[in-house]
Amino acid sequence: MRIHHVKLENYRSYRDAEIKFSTSPVKNFTIIQGSNGAGKSNILNAVTWCLYGEERHLRTEDKNRQLPIINEQVYHTLMPGEQATVKVEIALGDSEIKHVISRQAKAFCQPGGEVTIREDTDPQVMFLAQGNWHQSSNPIMAIKFLLPSDISHFFFFDAEQLDEFFKEGSAKRVKKGVVDVSQISLLHQTISHLEVLHGNVRRATQGISPQTDRINRELGEVEEKLRGCKEALSTLDQNQRGIQDNLDEIQQRFRASTIEEVRRFEESRERLDGQIRDYESQLDGLREQAVACLRETGPLVYAFEAIKTTKKLIQEQVALGKLPLKIRSLFFEDLLAQGRCVCGQELAKGSDASIQIQSHLEKATQSDYLSEAETGKYVVNHILRGTSELVEKQRNLGKEIHALEGTIEETKRQLRELSEKIEKYGEINLEEIKVLEQQHVQYQEEQRKNNQEIGRKQVEEKFLGKELSRLNGELERAVKKDQKQKDLGRRLGLCTEALQALNEIRSEMLSEVRSKIQQKTEEYFLDLIWKKATYKRVSIDDNFQINVLNVRDMPSLGTLSAGERQVLALAFMAALSSISGFDAPVIIDTPTGRISGVPRENIAESLPGYLADTQVTLLMTDTEFTEPVQVRLNERIGQEYSLNFFEDDANTEVVQR
Amino acid sequence: MRDRQINQMILDKLEAKDIPMHVKGFIGEILQHENGGIDQERPQYTRTYDNLLNKFMLQQDEARINHGETE
Amino acid sequence: MNTDAFPEIRNLRYSDADGEKYRQLTQDKLSPFYGSNFKDIFVYAATYGYRHGLSKELERPKPNIPISAFSEEDIWLLKSIAIADEGSLEILKDEKEQYRIAERYANGAFETIYLEVLGGKPGEPYKRMMQDVHDEFERLELDES
What we know:
Number of strands of chain A: 15
Strand content of chain A: 15-25%
Strand content of chain B: under 5%
Largest interface: A-C, 45 and 44 residues
Distance between the termini of chain B: 43 Å
Structural class of chain B: mainly alpha
Number of strands of chain B: 0
Shape of chain B: flat
Number of helices of chain A: 18
Helix content of chain B: 55-70%
Number of helices of chain B: 3
Oligomer: heterotrimer
Radius of gyration of chain B: 14 Å
Distance between the termini of chain A: 24 Å
Helix content of chain A: 55-70%
């Protein structure tokens, strides 16, 4: 989807302006350049006002001065009894315009000279269908399909305000955004409606038989347990986040301590923590390998004698000349079917020749088990050859695991020693340090216990989920037993199967979308960031908490500079845009406001690649749109404008370049 | 009027599911209805869902007849 | 090949009461069978049962392990057990009986395997099981020499 044009009439600093946006697939960038105060942000405000009735990016000064939405000059020159119209119009479409959305406000000068402004409640939406233009009877719904308000923050944004997104506690907003953009919210809605339907159908099965009543009761119990389990998990997750926040805070305080000794302790602790995390990750990998190896090796070793016996018996048959088989039963069957022997003699039914062939056939059929043994010979040899190799592999894995576990234990011991040192230091020098350290130890212990409980609850949740499936299946079968209720049984079956499939799809989507966005955000962030040696990873956990990890695997979101946060925001938005499956135009106000020099040029270089299939509009200041930046964006710029604000008549002129 | 299609990722996952055709069809249509702005008032959406249930049960019957299946 | 009058076997069986335990073995994160199929448990139990002479008739058999899930190697492990059990290749004539023998060994050993993994013993189950496999192999090597 592309914006074709935006027309502004008496909207804020724009008396009468039209901006045509580039709709070319290759030259997909539109640059609108203006100094601070020239009216750049008002373009973004105009778009959000027109679509959603909200001006989201009002500058503080405008808010403070409480400037009306109508152009200041027009406002002041209205005579009593006169009225003026504020109008913003947006044309949307692909290669041609398909929708024109407009919103108006009317300013009326009262007899007393006071100007009142009344904004229209709803916008007007015109759409093209079968060559004719029609007015939409439900403009709000129409806009919801085109550019839903919920997700518009991800497509129309002020890069400097994006800070909010990455502050602590932003996870919920991030998750909601991702869920909406990828339409997982559509799945939520569908599932919740389908659950109501399923409930209705299940209620209709009450009273059919004692069996269905019993199953319904059990279903109710399991559902109750599952609800409790999910609530417990949610609480535990929340607790863990709280504990982690506390741990991060303590860490920050140590890092920021004025005492060098304390800062050094904390550095060492972070280093050791990072090492343990790495080792444990390696250990997980080794365990997985060892367990997979065990599943293969165990049966081979336990059946070894049996395999050797089988081999011996097969070899005996070879020695007796019974293997390999010379004649197959199929051969004799064919002869009898054809009615003629290979020697040419007819094999009439009941003839001596046919009886003889029949006897050969019987013998051959009896020895068909030997033909199976013939195949088995190869498999059995292969198994025998491979066994000692696998056992050796398993032995080696066992040794590696043992060694790594030792290393982890040793590192943990060092960590404990360090913790004691910190506490002792605190005792001697600064009580606060001692207290903080004790809290640190306590929180870590709580975290460990919580993780165990979470693990248990997750297993319980999975088990209850499977119980639910089983009971639903049982209910369906029980209902169908009653001939009169067959249809009801089938309705139940269809609902249950559809619910299960949708739940699975939703679960997979959440996981995949999160993982893909993390991957892309990390890729773009590490590509754009200038301190490449400092940052290692971007993580987005299951709760959509974003973090940036430094080379020691320590969370560093809180210590990112404003410019670095801006890069993270841009990287995230670009990732979301590419993953969302939603084709929306992107407008970014001041994309590199807090970034300068080479990093800014890098962004200009890379951003077009991240947003290749998207219409991108950048509202940039002169300091942003430097010559090096221009050079890098040049190939992709389809339209370019500069904004000149004339204070005398409070008007911004839009000049095409 | 509907420019915002359902995310292809969702449709691909539905297609890849190892479930009977009539269940896929049912899910596909309820998703389309939800995306098309199904009325959120309960009597309305449950009526739509009920109708779709009936439609796809009929489809299941037809499929069975075509394949000569019996219950 | 199959001269048996009965239709081709499509599923192998375990005792009904063990169904839940099979599930637990594939769902518990500490279990070496976490995330794997029932057939992996079956093959492990059957071969273990053969080695330790643990064989038991099934009670209320449930045909829940599709044969299609077994690899050719798995099948020949089970066939070898049956051949060694009978002492002759002739058991290959009777596909049904081959699998029945494997089922009885798996059934006989299952409780032992289950307790080894989820019986609350201290330490990690996979390590104990790995050790057992090593010891067994060493015994075999000694026998060879």
